[in-house]
UniProtKB/TrEMBL annotation:
Superkingdom in the source lineage: Eukaryota
Keywords on record: Coiled coil, Signal
Coiled coil (residue ranges): 30-57
Record-given protein name: Uncharacterized protein
Length: 132
């Protein structure tokens, strides 16, 4: 019978302390969640301010082309200079490279007195000593 009383006593003590451990665990979980919520709210605030700053920067950058257009209108002489530069007959492979040619091959260039066909090798660097 004493054995039975001991078991009952231990069972009652276990039941008495069990809810407090569950409550303590619940309190710790609540504190962890509150801490996580606080960190997340702080991060959201940071991200919102970053978004606002980026939106202002985008608005500023969108206005730049408009400012350039207003400040530097193209004149007829500017257009004529560009047209003349793009229609100029090249005198060398280097001129062709400067005009944007990148494919090696036969090209017409202006010689001393007439137009000549030359082979330009654009696969080599412009300052390559083995270049002919």
């Amino acid at each position: 019978m004493t054995h039975f009383v001991t078991i009952i006593t231990l069972s009652i003590l276990a039941l008495a302390f069990w809810p407090t451990s569950v409550i303590a665990s619940s309190d710790e979980t609540h504190e962890d969640l509150a801490s996580q919520l606080s960190r997340m709210e702080s991060k959201v605030t940071q991200l919102e301010s970053l978004i606002t700053a980026l939106q202002k920067e985008v608005t500023r950058m969108k206005s730049i082309p408009t400012q350039i257009d207003r400040n530097s209108p193209a004149t007829e002489s500017d257009v004529a200079a560009v047209r003349q530069a793009t229609t100029k007959i090249p005198r060398s492979c280097q001129d062709l490279r400067c005009m944007g040619q990148i494919i090696s091959g036969m090209y017409a260039v202006m010689g001393n007195t007439s137009v000549e066909m030359v082979f330009c090798d654009f696969s080599k660097a412009p300052n390559d000593p083995s270049k002919l």
